[in-house]
């Protein structure tokens, strides 16, 4: 380790040690979970918005933006981590079930560096970080076996799912610690979570390893692209056509910054503009003329 990197690591350690007052005391000071808040639709923030109106709230336009170079000298990886996990929100959470290569250890853990990237074929990304250079069991298992089940987390079992992020040694199964129910998959070997309203059996398509820009040569993560090969949807969550999952049943949980989760109890609908329709309005036709060849 070079001398110049020593203070950096110390600073990193101090930044990572987020002061944690007794969580139960903090939680006790907060209102109880609002069980009466159920999924419902509202209007959009500005139902009278017209083309060219821009943002709804213009009162913040005097604020300037701070420019941040993610790999500036002295910038700590944990600073990028904290900024990104609090700014790229809310993130869906893939609750991933895997099996070790020898088939002896079952594993279950939440991953919010997760998203769907294609529907045909159904493709998903998972981002595994290498904290302190240690590979996560889920990553080792996905790369070794090429299989996983991605379960979507609901309000109904969020505490159990969160508990599965425990840094237990390999071989200690989060299934038993969480009390969640394993059910057989049909295409892949890892079990799916019965309590999940929606689960996807998936197979590894490809993976790519990343290394640090701040500490070159240090392996920092792995991206896995997996393909969904079987879907499981709880019957009461599907609409009559069998195509859509009801958010009131799914009760999805997302990830915000720090240790914050978000629930989703409100939504609004907003149709996408159809050019051939909107152009019939003379006002919009005028606006389109101005937009032609518009330069910044
Ligand atoms: C909601 C949530 C989301 C998480 N997302 C990620 C992630 O995207 N990537 C990652 O490497 N770790 C993530 N973690 C941390 C892992 O879940 C944690 O390191 C866990 O112990 C990994 O388990 P494993 O080694 O059994 O795979 C997340 C934790 C929580 C609670």
TrEMBL record:
All residue ranges annotated as the Flavin reductase like domain in the record: 86-246
Keywords: Flavoprotein, FMN
GO molecular function: FMN binding
Residue numbers spanned by region Disordered: 1-74
Biased composition (Polar residues): 32-49
Superkingdom of source: Eukaryota
Known cofactor(s): FMN
Claim: Membrane is one of the keywords in the record: no
Pfam families for the chain: Flavin_Reduct
Bias (Basic and acidic residues) ranges: 55-69
Keyword field contains Coiled coil: no
Xref: PANTHER family: FLAVIN REDUCTASE LIKE DOMAIN-CONTAINING PROTEIN (PTHR33798:SF5), FLAVOPROTEIN OXYGENASE (PTHR33798)
Similarity section: Belongs to the flavoredoxin family.
Protein name per UniProt: Flavo protein-like protein oxygenase
Species of provenance: Sporormia fimetaria CBS 119925
């Amino acid at each position: 380790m070079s001398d110049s990197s020593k203070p950096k690591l110390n600073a990193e350690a101090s930044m990572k040690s987020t002061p944690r007052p007794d969580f139960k005391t903090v939680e006790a000071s907060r209102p109880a979970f609002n069980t009466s808040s159920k999924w419902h639709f509202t209007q959009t923030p500005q139902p009278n918005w017209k083309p060219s109106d821009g943002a709804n709230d213009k009162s913040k336009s005097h604020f300037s933006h701070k420019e941040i170079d993610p790999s500036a000298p002295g910038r700590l990886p944990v600073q990028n981590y904290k900024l990104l996990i609090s700014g790229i929100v809310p993130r869906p959470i893939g609750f991933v079930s895997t099996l070790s290569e020898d088939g002896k250890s079952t594993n279950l853990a939440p991953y919010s560096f997760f998203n769907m990237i294609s529907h045909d074929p159904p493709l998903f990304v998972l981002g595994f970080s290498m904290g302190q250079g240690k590979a996560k069991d889920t990553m080792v298992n996905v790369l070794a076996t090429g299989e996983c089940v991605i379960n979507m987390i609901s309000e109904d079992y969020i505490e159990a799912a969160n508990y599965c992020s425990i840094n237990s040694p390999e071989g200690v199964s989060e299934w038993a610690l969480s009390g969640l129910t394993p059910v057989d998959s049909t295409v892949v070997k890892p079990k799916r979570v019965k309590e999940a309203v929606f689960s996807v059996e998936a197979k590894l398509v490809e993976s790519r390893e990343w290394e640090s820009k701040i500490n070159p040569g240090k392996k920092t993560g792995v991206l896995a692209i997996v393909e969904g090969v079987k879907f499981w949807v709880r019957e009461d969550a599907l609409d009559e056509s069998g195509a859509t999952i009801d958010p009131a049943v799914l009760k999805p949980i997302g990830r915000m910054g720090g240790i914050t989760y978000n629930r989703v109890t409100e939504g609004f609908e907003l149709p996408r503009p159809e050019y051939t329709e909107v152009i019939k309005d003379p006002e919009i036709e005028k606006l389109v003329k101005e937009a032609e060849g518009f330069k910044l």
